[in-house]
Design a protein that fits this description.
Elements: H1 2-22, H2 26-29, E1 35-41, E2 48-53, H3 56-69, E3 75-81, H4 93-102
Antiparallel strand pairs: 1-2, 1-3
C-alpha cells in the first residue's frame, strides 16, 4: 500500500521533470504579477506582503476596499512595482546583430 503511494509520487515527479526539460512547466505559463501591495503598521518598520496583481488598476481597487473595510486602525498600504528582473540576462542589440550577420 505504501509502496504504491511512493511509486505514484515518483512517477509524478518524473512527469514534472520531463515537462520542465521540454519547457512546458506550469510556472512559465503564468503571467508575471509585477504589482505588489504591501502593508505596514505605523508603529512598525516591517512590511507585510498583502497580495500581488497583474495591473495597477486591480491593486488600487484592492487597497481602496481594504481602506474602506478599516480592519486595523493604524495600517498603511504601499504599492511596489517590479521594474527589473535580476535573473533575466538581457542581450545587447549588438549581439543580436552579430547573430543575424553570422547566421
Amino acid at each position: 500500500m505504501v509502496r504504491g503511494g511512493i511509486m505514484n509520487l515518483v512517477k509524478c515527479i518524473w512527469v514534472d521533470i520531463k515537462n520542465i526539460i521540454k519547457g512546458e512547466n506550469k510556472m512559465s505559463k503564468k503571467p508575471n504579477k509585477k504589482y505588489m501591495v504591501m502593508s505596514k503598521f505605523k508603529h512598525s518598520d516591517r512590511f507585510n506582503l498583502e497580495k500581488q496583481f497583474l495591473n495597477r488598476h486591480s491593486a488600487d481597487a484592492y487597497v481602496g476596499l481594504m481602506i474602506d473595510d478599516r480592519e486595523y486602525d493604524s495600517i498603511e498600504y504601499f504599492l511596489f512595482e517590479q521594474s527589473h528582473d535580476y535573473q533575466h540576462i538581457e542581450e545587447s542589440p549588438m549581439e543580436d546583430l552579430q547573430e543575424v550577420v553570422n547566421g
